[in-house]
Amino acid sequence: MTQAVQTLRWVDGALEMIDQRVLPARFDYVRYTSAAEVAQGIRLMVVRGAPAIGCAAAYGVALEAMALLNGGREAFVNGLERAFEVLAASRPTAVNLFWALQRMRAIWQVNQHRAQGEIAAILLAQAHEISAEDVRINRAMGAHGAALLADGARVLTHCNAGALATAGHGTALGVIRSAVEAGKRISVIADETRPFLQGARLTAWEMVQEGIPVTLITDNMAGHLMRCGEIDAVIVGTDRVAANGDVANKIGTYMVAVLAQRHGIPFYVACPLSTIDLTLAHGDAIPIEERAADEVTGFRDCQWAAKGVQVRNPAFDVTPAELVTALITEKGVVRQPDKKNVAGLFST
Ligand code: MRU
Q1: Which residue of 113, 133, 135, 152 has the smallest Cβ count within 10 Å?
Q2: DSSP 3-state of 290
Q3: For residue 164, how far is its CA from the centre of ligand 1 (angstroms)?
Q4: Eight-state DSSP code of residue 112
């Protein structure tokens, strides 16, 4: 299966990532050779989306190990430790970042006795594996989730949980892609997703590239379309799911979930197991990133709000589990998620 969009790629000893700040006006790759650079790329949202951030962080660790090859052992060990720290501090909400770093740390610990060159090669192989595994997981989720969508379904999605948010195929958009591959006629309604416009700029672009029918709306139109009977299902991705099934996702998701319940529309969350955080009992414990005010007061060079106005810019919100019809995971579909059935995903 060919991949339409390669969000991250390894080229001549460096990580290249599509610059998601400038899509769709420009399609550029940015090149990264150190952990600090990758952390900056994550912070600035050159790369974004929970699984893609995890993959980028894993490559960040491998890049740092490669950059430290020619120093002594102490410099290598200290430098790697700093790499883990700087990457972990890049963005707080998506747990995939910490999950991927934990995986890289475990590999580093098991192989500490080896020569530095060998360790760097092993870390790079692990970063490649995390990315390859992400695509396999997204395809498995796609297969499970596609069965939930009827032929002809009009599916609303919020933010971008597509190929651009992952190593390929996507989570929420992966379900849609898999349903289309299975021969279903699916059309997508994309919320524009203020303030960073992931829906307008990224989801719409991905769907247009592949010829999947897509209609763009502003975020405040979703309720009207639901009331008019124009939406059959909602599918979103997630950045972190708590042990009780509460779902953190892009700001505005909660509003969509409330509306979906009001109108009896199923609200599905595509959720790889790497996005579930069993250490947090409920969604209130999920750290919510606050981003810069200028994302709300304007976009790029155009500032439309009055100078000096106070701004709030929480980048994510939490949807209580009771509003979630089902989590779509690589292990199958979990209806009405709660503490018991979420824990069950990890028991076999
Ligand atoms: O701020 P972003 O663009 O990183 O937020 C992304 C989202 O909220 C996605 O819906 C989520 O990461 C799932 S991506 C498969």
Answers
A1: 113
A2: strand
A3: 10
A4: T
Bridge partners for 269 per DSSP = 236, 327
Place of tokens 């028991």: 347
pLDDT tens profile 181-228: 999 999 999 999 999 999 999 999 999 999 999 999 999 999 999 999
Which amino acid makes up residue 311? V
Domain boundaries, the chain: 8-138, 144-344
Q: What is the pLDDT of residues 292-329, one digit of tens each?
A: 999 999 998 899 999 999 999 999 999 999 999 999 99
Distance between CA atoms of residues 190 and 180, nearest Å? 16
CB atoms within 10 A of CB 152: 10
Specify the DSSP element, H or E, that contains 62.
helix 50-67
Indicate the pTM of the whole model.
0.97
Q: pLDDT value at position 333?
A: 98
247-250 and 316-319 as β-strands: parallel, antiparallel, unpaired? antiparallel
Contact by Cβ (8 Å): 253, 319: yes
Q: Enter the CATH code of domain 8-138.
A: 1.20.120.420
Residues 6+ apart with CB under 8 A from 12: none
> Which structure tokens are listed for 53?
């951030």
Fold of 144-344: Rossmann fold (3.40.50)
CA of 99 to the centre of ligand 1 (A): 16
Instruction: Assign 11 to helix, strand or coil.
Output: strand
Distance 221 CA to ligand 1 centre (A): 21
Q: Would you state the structure tokens that stand for residue 309, as one six-digit string? A: 């106005």
Pseudo-torsion of CA 40, 41, 47, 49, nearest 10°?
A: 0
Residue from 18, 19, 48 to probe ligand 1 pocket by mutation (most atoms less than 8 Å from CB):
48
